[in-house]
Design brief:
Blueprint (H helix, E strand, L loop, with lengths): L6 E6 L2 E12 L2 E8 L7 H13 L5 H14 L1 E4 L2 E2 L2 E7 L2 E7 L15
Antiparallel strand pairs: 1-2, 1-4, 2-3, 3-7, 4-5, 6-7
Helix pairs in contact: 1-2
Length: 117
């Protein structure tokens, strides 16, 4: 499956949060240019907090990260070219976004939280 050049959409209910134009595919991670939509202002701080907790890489704060990411998942959905995906892990920083997804629920807790090196 070709990923580069595809556009993925982030939504909050019916409101567009932004588009991700995929320019790098290192499966299972995809990354690309993020263009904010009208709904991004309402979730910008959620993504900033989630990413800050990931970057701390502190096992003692893992529950805080899980709570922060649960809030992201409650507020947004991720839509691939074929429609919404049931599970995803999405990070947004500035004009970049990177994520992984699954057509099935993730097994045994959360997926890895970092992007590939």
């Amino acid at each position: 499956m070709a990923f580069e050049g595809a556009v993925w959409k982030v939504r909050s209910g019916d409101e567009p949060v932004g588009d991700i134009l995929i320019d790098e595919a290192d499966f299972p991670w995809l990354s690309g240019r993020f263009t904010a939509g009208p709904g991004f202002a309402g979730v910008r701080e959620l993504f900033a907090r989630e990413l800050a907790l990931v970057e701390e890489d502190d096992e003692e704060r893992r529950q805080e990260w899980e709570d922060a990411y649960d809030e992201v998942r409650r507020r947004v959905s991720l839509h691939g070219p074929g429609g919404p995906v049931p599970e995803f892990l999405l990070h947004i920083e500035g004009d970049r976004a990177w994520f992984r997804w699954s057509d099935e629920p993730f097994d045994e807790g959360r997926p890895e939280t970092e992007s590939p090196a």
